[in-house]
Write a structure and sequence with these properties.
alpha+beta, three-stranded antiparallel β-sheet, 11 helices, 16% strand, flat, disordered C terminus, Recombinase RecT, RecT_fam, DNA binding
Length: 299
């Protein structure tokens, strides 16, 4: 679809929310891998909900023939602030040495925090809670054991969860409390089509137009004591395939074929980097979908 044709399909919501030059920047920086239809849907959702892509309130993620529009935790706080009676939520970590108790409120039949006292050293984080307040409404309390987010410490964003546990865990539980208190519901959307663009930003310098043999990807590594860049990349690639549950040569072959990945034989460093980037995007989408499923389960 040409640029003038794209403009013709822009919805009134998009026109009201974004100037043409801003829309162009969003297309080039936030959703560079989106085709016209995907970008229009992404822009329309951002405009309809009043979310700012530049503030990381809404994301566009793509791998192979699949794209995903994902709403961030910041989106819930941003929209809650606009609601009548908004009060800042109280979000806290619970550590193993804290004095912490919860109890059922006999009137509301809801679990509430009745005691939370801290001392030092506090020990490891073992849980978190968030209380979403609102004028003329009962507080909504969401309490989570850290075991409920175990998958976050092994997923694509595991490094941030391990380094910034309190911040990441806090946003996670706060999002759920705000969602319930203010009736916020953002519908993440997965788009499947036959116009995939392969690996995100994947442009190897030298490549033959062939589908790689899985044995080429999984070729033996020489001189393990003096690991070269290619060996490190192969190890990283194998680990990411394992995280995705792709553990056989047949499954690897199907993955690269389904995602239109083309590589030389043997694979070059640039091509392995491109494949790893694609795997990263796929892992991110897998984690996002898992988190969305968790939210639905608790509703």
């Amino acid at each position: 679809m040409a640029n003038n044709q794209l403009q013709a399909h822009i919805t009134p919501e998009i026109q009201e929310a974004f100037k043409p030059e801003v829309l162009e920047v969003i297309r080039g920086s936030i959703a560079p891998t989106a085709n016209d239809q995907e970008f229009l849907l992404f822009a329309h959702k951002a405009a309809s909900y009043g979310l700012d892509p530049f503030k990381n309130e809404i994301f566009f993620i793509k791998y192979g023939n699949t794209a995903r529009i994902q709403f961030a935790a910041e989106a819930y706080l941003s929209k809650a602030r606009e609601k009548e009676g908004f009060q800042p939520p109280d979000t806290q970590m619970v550590h193993e040495n804290d004095e912490f108790k919860i109890a059922m409120n006999k009137e509301t039949k809801e679990m509430e925090v009745v005691q939370h006292e801290i001392g030092f050293p506090r020990g490891k984080i073992i849980g978190a809670y968030s209380i979403a307040y609102r004028d003329d409404h009962r507080p909504v309390t969401v309490i989570m054991d850290i075991t409920e987010v175990d998958h976050m410490f092994t997923g694509q964003n595991k490094d941030n969860w391990k380094k910034w546990t309190a911040d990441m865990f806090g946003k996670h539980v706060q999002q759920r409390a705000l969602k319930k208190q203010y009736g916020l519901e953002f519908d993440d959307e997965t788009i499947n089509n036959g116009e995939g663009q392969g690996a995100q930003g994947y442009k190897p310098k030298e490549r033959k137009d062939i589908t790689p043999n899985p044995d080429t990807i999984d070729q033996p590594e020489d001189n393990p004591k003096e690991e070269d860049p290619l060996q490190k990349l192969r190890k990283e690639m194998k680990q990411k395939f394992k995280q995705l549950g792709i553990t056989t040569n047949a499954k690897i072959g199907k993955y690269v074929e389904d995602n239109n990945v083309k590589m030389s034989d043997p694979a070059t460093e640039a091509e392995l980097v491109g494949l790893i980037e694609l795997l990263d995007v796929h892992l991110e989408m897998q984690e996002a979908q898992a988190q969305a499923s968790d939210d639905e389960t608790l509703d």
